[in-house]
C-alpha cells in the first residue's frame, strides 16, 4: 500500500523544499502548511484513487444529494432569504452538483484549493455564518454516508469510503475557516 513518508509532500512537493528558505514566497509557506494539514488528516494517494473509483456512484446519486441539501436549507428561513436575495435554488443546485462531482475527480491541486477559497469568500460576502456552513456540511455528509452504505461491496469498503469522503469534507471545512 502506497504511503507518504513523514516529510514527503503529497500535493505540493515544491513547498517542503522551499519552506526552509527564509526568502521563499509567502504562498509557498501556505502550501507547506496545507501539506501539514493534509498529513494530519492522513489524506493519501490511496484516498484520491478511491475517490475516482467512487465517482460513478456519486454521479448516479447526485440528484438525491443536491435535493436533500437544498430541501434542508430552505427550511431555515434565514438561509432561504440569503439564497433568494443573492441567487436561486436552481442555480445553486447546478453549481453544487459540479462542486461535488469535482471532489470525486481526486485532483487536489492548486486549482482545487484556490477554487474552494474563492467559494468560501463568496459565502462570506453573502453573510453566511460558519455555523450554518458547518451544518450544511453535516447534511451533505449524512447523505454521502447513506449512499456509501447502500452501494459499497462489503464492510471494509464501507469503512474506507466513509473515511475518505469525510477527509475531503473536512479539508473543505478547513479551507472555509481559514
Ligand atoms: C454559491 C457550494 C453552503 C448560499 C456557492 C457556489 C458553490 C457553493 C460551489 C458557487 C460559487 C460560484 O458561483 O462559482 C456550497 C457548499 C456548501 C454551501 C459546498 C456547504 C456544504 C451554502 C449555504 C448557503 C449557501 C448553507 C445558505 C444560504 C450560497 C449563495 C451562493 C452560493 C447565496 C451564490 C452567491 C452568488 O452567486 O453571488 N455555494 N455552498 N451556500 N452559496 Fe453555497
From TrEMBL:
Transmembrane segments: none annotated. Belongs to the methyl-accepting chemotaxis (MCP) protein family. This is Heme-based aerotactic transducer. The chain holds residues 16 to 193 of 449 of the full protein.
